[in-house]
Amino acid sequence: MYTDLLTKIKNSQAVKKESVKVPYSAMDLAILELLEKHKFIAGVAKKGRMPKRILDITLKYENKKGVIQGVRFLSIPSRRLYIGYKDIKPVRQGYGLLVLSTPKGIMDGKTAYKQKIGGQLLFDIW
């Protein structure tokens, strides 16, 4: 689940680890590729074979501090939040990233707004 993934990344950055390994899932890989594209992590690699497949995440630091300052989970298992494309707003005056699950896959808020697609809110990251 992406909540465990992001919590592990944030905690690993707090103790200045170089990388972190998490179990593989397709949704986690899509989220990590999006975070890599927006430069919140340095890299992600899929390793191993099917029963023991893992994701190896290389963390990114600037001025000896982790790039990820905070994460806010918007949808939780007991409360799913959905949004139309007209209601998508910038996160932290454009310095953050809104991540949605849309019918066309996992994407950030800016891309979803341009393609006029709404979806389930997953989390904000800054």
From TrEMBL:
Molecular functions (GO terms): structural constituent of ribosome
Transmembrane segments: none
Keyword vocabulary terms for this entry: Ribonucleoprotein, Ribosomal protein
Cellular component, GO annotation: cytoplasm; ribonucleoprotein complex; ribosome
A Pfam short name: Ribosomal_S8
GO biological process terms on file: translation
PANTHER family assigned to the protein according to its UniProt record, in alphabetical order: 40S RIBOSOMAL PROTEIN S15A
Family, as annotated: Belongs to the universal ribosomal protein uS8 family.
Listed name of the protein: Small ribosomal subunit protein uS8
Naturally occurring in which organism (per UniProt): Candidatus Harrisonbacteria bacterium RIFCSPLOWO2_02_FULL_45_10c
Taxonomy of the source species: Bacteria, Candidatus Harrisoniibacteriota
